[in-house]
Design goal:
This protein has helices at about 1-5, 30-45, 65-85, 90-95, 125-130, and strands at about 15-20, 55-60, 100, 115. The protein is of the alpha+beta class. The chain has a two-stranded parallel sheet.
Length: about 130
């Protein structure tokens, strides 16, 4: 998912700080660095342009990196919508959302559905899942 997340974004700044939340006891810095390198290669393959951005990877906990607390809350709100159909939490946050990718919804396009300010992610957008 990391190469997809960073697709078309690594060339936009000279220096990029990426903070990943620690999951488990093993640091995943090496795996994350490989995923970022794969994103660079994919970008070059598609656009024939290199990205010379310096990418700094940090792995930590929400206590150390406050932004991770916000990310965890946003992800929890999305999870509540997908699992329970509760949209009130995400609805409250939606004006802060830039993009949510539903990579599993390939009914129309093979790459999934991109939700944002123009195409809102809510319970009605996921109603088709309940019919399966």
């Amino acid at each position: 998912m990391v190469p997809r997340l960073l697709r078309n974004r690594l060339h936009k700044a000279d220096e990029i700080e990426i903070v990943f939340s620690r999951r488990g006891k093993k640091p995943r810095t090496k795996a994350l660095a490989l995923a970022i390198e794969r994103a660079r290669k994919n970008f070059y393959r598609k656009y024939k342009m290199t990205s010379n951005s310096q990418v700094n990877i940090h792995v930590g906990s929400p206590e150390r990196y406050g932004g991770l607390q916000a990310v965890d809350y946003f992800l929890w709100a999305v999870q509540r919508l997908f699992e329970r159909g509760e949209e009130r939490y995400l609805k409250y946050l939606w004006h802060h959302v830039q993009e949510v990718v539903d990579a599993d919804d390939r009914r129309v396009r093979g790459y999934g559905v991109y939700y944002g300010q123009r195409l809102r992610l809510d319970a009605s957008a996921l109603a088709w899942r309940n019919k399966q």
